[in-house]
Amino acid sequence: MNSVSQGGTGKFVVTSVSSDAHMWNLVFLQLLLEEHGGQVVNLGACTPDELIISECIRVRPDTLVISTVNGHGHIDGLRLIRKIRQNAELAHLRVVIGGKLGIHGSRHGGFGAELVANGYDAVFEADGEFNQFLDCLGLLPSTPKQIPAPRAWSI
């Protein structure tokens, strides 16, 4: 899937990690971001790292949003963010990841600090609060459009 929508609040690339074949989470995120005025390019499930990187260079999003529900987001997410941060054109791209990052879901909840230390701007571990996610992206009406410091939420 590679669908593009129009909006006016921000430009987002939404994708999963390469090993995640789930699509419903990406459709939900696309609709959520569109509802808040975002322009979304949805790369779909099982997206190879190289395609994510090339599309981010082509599209120039404000934020790359990575969602995963297969339990391997921590492993694939680390590999992906390292590649993104090594690319001079994407070194400063705002990147967030969320979902089921490990096989134990919210029972583990310890991946956020490592993912942030490796370059993610925010991490949303299983059972996330959508208002915190939207606030992080600057999409809540009451929040100013400034980028918060990198942090990991375990909600």
Structure explained in plain terms:
With 155 residues, this protein is an alpha/beta fold. 32% of the residues lie in helices and 21% in strands. The protein contains 5 helices and 7 strands. The chain has helices at residues 24-35, 49-59, 73-86, 112-117, 130-136; strands spanning 3-4, 10-15, 38-42, 63-68, 94-99, 122-125, 151-154. It has a 7-stranded mixed beta sheet with strand order 1-3-2-4-5-6-7, with helices on both faces. The relative contact order is 0.17. Mean pLDDT is 82; it is low at 1-8.
Question: Summed up, what is this model?
Answer:
The protein has 155 residues and is of the alpha/beta class. It has helices spanning 24-35, 49-59, 73-86, 112-117, 130-136; strands at residues 3-4, 10-15, 38-42, 63-68, 94-99, 122-125, 151-154. The model is unreliable at 1-8 (pLDDT under 50).
Read across the widest sheet, the strand sequence of neighbours is 1-3-2-4-5-6-7
Low-confidence stretches: 1-8
Overall helicity: 25-40%
Radius of gyration: 14 Å
Beta percentage is 15-25%
How far apart, in Å, are the first and last alpha carbons? 29 Å
DSSP summary, beta strand count = 7
Mean pLDDT: 82
Structural class: alpha/beta
The sequence of SSEs as H and E is EEHEHEHEHEHE
Identify the overall geometry. Answer: globular
**How does the major sheet shape up?**
7 strands, mixed
Question: What is the count of helical runs?
Answer: 5
